[in-house]
Design goal:
about 130 residues; alpha+beta; 5-stranded mixed beta sheet; globular
């Protein structure tokens, strides 16, 4: 069962609920259904949703001021039957904040984030320079 929630986000996305799972956007919910189909076919072995990663640990500076950790929450962590593991983010618009966090993620975890968008009924991977 698919339900759309009424509240709009700052990027004009509507929250979507599928099988009691809340998604930040319609596109993200569609990608989840795509992954579920791949899981039924045996291509995907595990799908994790909204997985947090620490990009920079919390710390206290020399003046005693506490600074919170910088985190990134991946839309999906996908494990494949061939033992690959992908960190996936579904994007309608790529922001500078995402670009910065992606760089920090690569530096810390030595793995890139797969960024996907739905174009003409097909999932495409966004490429970064």
């Amino acid at each position: 069962m698919i339900k759309k929630k009424a509240r709009q986000s700052k990027y004009n996305n509507s929250k979507v609920v599928i099988n009691d799972i809340s998604f930040d956007s319609y596109m993200e919910s569609r990608y989840y259904l795509y992954l579920v189909e791949l899981q039924k076919c045996g291509v995907v072995t595990d799908i994790q949703l909204q997985v947090p990663f620490v990009l920079q640990d919390a710390f206290t500076d020399e003046c005693g001021k506490k600074h919170q950790a910088i985190t990134y929450v991946a839309d999906f962590v996908v494990n494949y039957a061939d033992n690959r593991k992908e960190i996936v983010d579904v994007k309608g618009k790529v922001t500078q904040t995402f670009r910065n966090k992606r760089k920090m993620f690569i530096a810390r975890y030595k793995q890139d984030i797969k960024c996907v968008q739905r174009k003409k009924k097909e999932w495409i991977e966004l490429k970064f320079r």
